[in-house]
What does this fold into?
Amino acid sequence: MYTNQTVIFKHKPVIIGSFSIVGPKEGKGNFGPYFNYVMKDDCFGEKSYEKAEMKMLKTAIVGAIEDAKIKASDVNLLLAGDLLNQIISSSYAARDFDFAFLGLFGACSTMAESMAIGASLIDGHEFDTVVCSTGSHFSTAERQFRFPLELGNQRPPTSQWTVTGAGACVLSNKGVGPRITMATFGKVIDYGIMDVNDMGAAMAPAAMNTMLAHFRDTKTTPDDYDLIVTGDLGKLGSEILIDLMEDQGIKLGLNYNDCGQMYFTRNQNTLSGGSGCGCSATVLNSYIIKKLRTGEYKRVLFMPTGALMSTTATQQGETIPGVCHAIVLECDESVKDKKVKDVTLSRSKNKKILETVEENSQK
Amino acid sequence: MYTNQTVIFKHKPVIIGSFSIVGPKEGKGNFGPYFNYVMKDDCFGEKSYEKAEMKMLKTAIVGAIEDAKIKASDVNLLLAGDLLNQIISSSYAARDFDFAFLGLFGACSTMAESMAIGASLIDGHEFDTVVCSTGSHFSTAERQFRFPLELGNQRPPTSQWTVTGAGACVLSNKGVGPRITMATFGKVIDYGIMDVNDMGAAMAPAAMNTMLAHFRDTKTTPDDYDLIVTGDLGKLGSEILIDLMEDQGIKLGLNYNDCGQMYFTRNQNTLSGGSGCGCSATVLNSYIIKKLRTGEYKRVLFMPTGALMSTTATQQGETIPGVCHAIVLECDESVKDKKVKDVTLSRSKNKKILETVEENSQK
It folds into this structure.
């Protein structure tokens, strides 16, 4: 059932498993203790950063399936995308799994895009079990979108730091866990920003547009959520969003934050904060889902934004449009009033998952 | 409802409108008389080939909506993707429409990917009306994936010609027209092909995999279809597919063909045939849908394939994986036994559509 841009899920698909993997810098950031696996170095034993990114995605997918305590053969479909040209990290990761694949591109909004489509497919009884995944890598994004790392280019204060990390979750029509109750599908919005070092400003109008649509369609207000979280608007972009929303008569309070803004500590010197598909994906699949599982969060509005830019478009004088998809996550009925034992994978189990990934890579 | 990789649609979403636009060379090809609009030159009045590609997509979307005799405000969602880095043609086209957007990447399989997801969303009652679209441009693809046009590089006999064209269709939960009755979601398959000038060989194994899954899941055989059509395997790739299927005990007969192989006339000198997202998209949204509307085709298995390659992956010594999604299209009950008046847009109406596109571009 839908109202305008928002689908209200009748059967409320369940997140039965999740996994997050990050680089060493990210592991030292504010969410460090929540991630399932922190890589020792950001090459992850591979010969190129791109191959490392592919391996991160594979690790996240295998990890989420193990966390869900199901077999890979129980999975019907993988929905994934990333920032690289022709989403190679996702496509090449998909090659090592024996289930169907839908490739997506929503830039840094991909985690929500994959979950919105995945939840729709489950809610409509098209499939029973799907995996949603995305990730990014600082070094692959820098060289593709900006400058060679070797140039040691200076970064303006509005610039953000692409997170090296990947996240994945398993959605199912049965089981216990946080549920996806609604999804608001976003429009492409362009306010004419042209600075590739100011992604927050380019994406904030899309976040506003989707947020207004969400509140309108669902008749909710910011107070109905324990947490409203954007993906990677960063410090500047999230301030712009707060201003834009205030102009529309909606005040975002202490329950609003941005994954990119929260990601790194101040002394990690990432200027306007974290960005990239991996930013919101790793925060969702660690910190947020953990707190939904224990019932600390009852209802979360997760709305990552994507800047739909490309170097070709920029070189041809184009502005940067943005898009934002929103999903509502609610804790399981069983933890609505009480605390439960945390079911997230403990770090000690990760060795086994990595071995499984290594094994798959040999195929 | 699904069986393994295949979803059987209970409510059989209807294709209520479609539109195809192509370049001048394509207009002189075998499907020339069937296209809705043939551009006079492949810059389409724009300053770059990329901008021309964006405009083609917009034209196709506007055209399909007009053909469906609905208003743009009736559309809930656009599902689109293309070959360009960060699918800019689709994202920038989406900017000019006031409905939600889901960006996809399935390389040349995108037409089926968008229709498989779109039909699922309608069948599951998530949305009522969606537009599916994709396109490609010879000159943008050549310079992104291969060599600058100015180099005048020689083309090996296995190479294919990227179609300049875009197609779009409107899917709805009500109305009269061809129906989408099933969709088989494909896996990523890699047989180790490394030659970027031999896409047919790289994609044929994915076509085989999805075709076998489709026949297994739906208990159909090639004889159950008036037409089984792949997207852009080309002359060589479709021969490989016939051989691969024969090895599996399934004989593809005269009802099997490939859009890329059929696209150009022999004297157009495109070597192994047409390719690109626009190849299968323009054939589907002209020739095939026209023949389904009149009842000349009762049941078509449409299965375009995508080569998930990127220049970065190729430079790092990677092979080229392929993917193939299949959808089954059936003619409307009302034309199962009789001929009806053709409802495709006549060429004379196209001027109006182009004016609408021009108007939208001014925004």
Remarks:
- Chain B has eleven helices and 17 strands.
- The domain at 1-363 of chain B is CATH 3.40.47.40 (Peroxisomal Thiolase; Chain A, domain 1).
- Residues 340-350 of chain B have pLDDT under 50 and may be disordered.
- Chain B touches chain A through 59 residues (CB under 8 Å).
